[in-house]
Design brief:
Length: 311
């Protein structure tokens, strides 16, 4: 996800019909007294939240079920909304753990941040969230971020592997959400960082969704901004172009939690999840939940945890 245009997280634009949290996570009153925590030194019940889109709920289920398997007392409160709602929820105790995206989260605290790599973003994020008595744990390899995408056929015909190679195919049309025309990693960054400026911009309102994908596949546009966990990447045989200059900041999945529940046992359990979770995993999980199978987030999460050997 990009640091500013990802409306479904940064601005909460996309509110896809959410799957209700199911098995393994009780829906107890978050104001109820603590019932104990077999997994660590803090006796607080852990309430896992999520943003209001399917991928976030899947991740929330993964966290919740992984912790339950370690003996933690867990409940869920999913589909809360954008960061303007989730951060206050963490602070007031409505929730105390949520899957986050490091770049977008850092942008919430510092809109002018210049860090781009996972390591640099994570380092800056640790200090940024501490001001709100929050903690982040280790990032996963998994990322959900904007990407410059082409069809495999177009890439092979033109020798494209990275964004820099787009200089060879100018002029071309690029499809993306309207904000992409002004964002630093969008049209302006494409020119300033990669020297690619002979581009016709075609706006689509669906943030890398079906309309954008269709335009790319039928060659209405030759390049599109599609997010790196989109199931369409596999279904339509699309290629994410490499970004050697780190034009687009890291957007790794990581846990954000209230400092009050931070324990070595909790960190160990969630770091184990992050150590296994990949971008390809997120694509497959989203495909199960959002595709023809229509699996519940709970089922998809449970199956992934078993395959990863975490439960």
């Amino acid at each position: 996800m990009s640091i500013f245009s990802k409306g479904r997280v940064a601005a909460g634009v996309i509110a896809v019909g959410a799957v209700v949290a199911l098995a393994g996570c009780s829906q107890a009153d978050p104001t109820a007294p603590d019932t104990g925590n077999a997994g660590g030194g803090d006796s607080s019940q852990i309430t896992v939240g999520s943003f209001a889109f399917p991928e976030s709920e899947i991740l929330g289920e993964i966290y919740a079920q992984a912790l339950e398997a370690k003996g933690f007392d867990v409940q869920t409160k999913f589909n809360i909304g954008p960061r303007q709602q989730t951060i206050p929820a963490l602070q007031d105790g409505s929730i105390n753990l949520i899957p986050e995206y490091n770049g977008n989260l850092l942008a919430y605290y510092d809109t002018e941040f210049t860090q781009r790599t996972t390591e640099d973003v994570d380092a800056a994020l640790t200090d940024a969230v501490a001001a709100d008595d929050l903690v982040v744990y280790s990032s996963a390899e998994a990322e959900d971020k904007d990407a410059y995408v082409v069809t495999q056929a177009y890439a092979e015909a033109n020798g494209l592997t990275s964004i820099a190679d787009l200089a060879k195919v100018q002029p071309f049309s690029l499809g993306a959400n309207p904000q992409f025309a002004e964002l630093g990693y969008g049209i302006p960054g494409l020119a300033s960082v990669y020297g690619v400026s002979n581009v016709t911009f075609v706006p689509y309102e669906d943030f890398g969704g079906p309309d954008t994908v269709r335009a790319l596949v039928d060659n209405t546009v030759q390049v599109a901004d599609i997010y790196t966990t989109s199931p369409a990447l596999v279904a339509e045989n699309l290629l994410v172009l490499e970004d050697p200059e780190n034009l687009i900041a890291a957007q790794n999945v990581l846990p954000l939690l209230s400092a009050s529940i931070d324990t070595p046992e909790l960190k160990e359990a969630l770091d184990a999840v992050s150590a296994e979770l990949t971008t390809d995993d997120l694509i497959a999980l989203r495909d199960r939940v959002e595709g023809s199978e229509q699996a519940s987030a709970s089922t998809a999460a449970a199956d992934w945890l078993k395959e990863a050997g975490l439960v």
